[in-house]
Structures are given as C-alpha cells and as structure tokens.
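Q: Sequence in, structure out?
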Amino acid sequence: MNEPSIHSVEAFLSSVEIDPIDEFGLESMTAAAGPPQPDFTNETEQSILVGSQVAGFSSDVPIELRPVLTNVFLLAQLVADKKTNSGGGTEDWHKHYFDTLSNVGWRKIAHSNVEQVVSGTALEVHREIIPIITAAFGPAVTAASTIIRILKGLDDMDKDMPWITLFNSKSRRATSNPFQFSQTIMEGGVPKIVLLAFELNAARSVTQILFFKFSSDEASLSHYMEQLSASVEILHKTKSKVEELVIEHVSSNLAAIEDLEL
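A: Exactly. Output:
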C-alpha cells in the first residue's frame, strides 16, 4: 500500500466531521473533577488513556511525537463515533477507525481478526486479553509495557477510579463495548504501531470496562490486530490541523495513567 501524499492527507482532514463535545454528555466534566491530564515524558515507557484506548509508548518514542500520535488516535475514534451514531456494529466502527489512520498517512503492515466466546462465573475479561496482547506485542515489548501492568493491576483497583470511569463511559454502547490498546516503538526513525481493537458483545449490559464479571452470561470477545507505520513527515506537517479538530475533546478524553500504583 502506497503512502498517501501530504496533499491527500490535508484534503481528508479538511473533510472530517466529528460530533460536538456534548455528544456523550461529557461537557460538564471540568479539569478539577476529571482525570489528570497527560504529562508526556521522554526516554521512558509511558501509557496514556485516549478515550476508549490505552496508548503505550516505548522509551525510544520521542517526546515530541507522543502528543501528535495521541491526537491522531483520538481523531480516529471521534470519526468512527460520528459515522456509526445512526447504526453500525463492531465491524463498521473499526473500519472507520482504521480508515482514518490510513487516510492520515499511516501504512498497514499486517492485519488479523479473531472472535472467541468467553463465559463463566466471575469471569474477568482483562485476564482473557493479556495473552492476546502479549502475543501481538511480542515478549520483548510486553516485558517493558506499562499496559500489562495496568491490566494486571485492575484486580486491586477501585471501580470508581477516574480513568476507569472515563474509559467506561467512552466505551460502552448498549451491550457492545469497543476498547483498544496500542504500543508504539521506533524502528529506523519511523513509528511502528501494534494496535489491538477489542469488542465485547454481552448478553446483558455491563457496568465496567476491562473488569467485566458474569454470573452465567455468555459473551463474545472479538479483536482486530493492525500493525502500522506512521510517516513522521506527515505527522509533523498535519499536527496543527489534527489538533484543531480534536482540541475541544482533549480534556474529556485524555488522561494520565502513569501515576497509578499498579
């Protein structure tokens, strides 16, 4: 797949439509009441909550790229939300999500999708997805990833922790719950992203994302895996336009999670 030109990316960004800030009733959130905002770091492993996604950055991802990549992840979610408000299930949402990344210059390297049935007493879905993430990220990346620590730490976390509350409100739609994990590393000066997009379809509505418990319900857990590379040149040339598109949504959708004691 050829990399889009800067002109095609700019044309796409000029045509983007997203919902206003009050779409999910989050306009009432204030900086004081909401989760802590990200403080991007350099030369350290870091994870940021981006709406329904936990975005991990390896220690070699430059500090100036982290907010740029984060804004693109947020834009992709907002576009997918907009395009599926009037209908469409898992496949539609993720198609629009990944299409947005392609349209802003990200190149697909590999793709797969899997669906599995999950059920049982007091099943905790985060335990189901840890081996999936480990296989996708690879042992070396997984060993250093804060995402795995976050998932393993969920057993001890209060369900009312601010970032989980926000993750939940941005992820839940009826009995269908999309959420994503990504890990970005640098290879030859180019950001390489492994992105896992999950969807939990349950027989009844659930109340906690990544901490689902079922007494006797059966659910299906689908996941889509994409390996992508992003053009640093296009990221820098379009960062102002992307920021302009998402700026009003940032305070309601981004949160720092590196300070959680996991």
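Residues 23-34, 160-166, 171-175, 204-216 have pLDDT under 50 and may be disordered.
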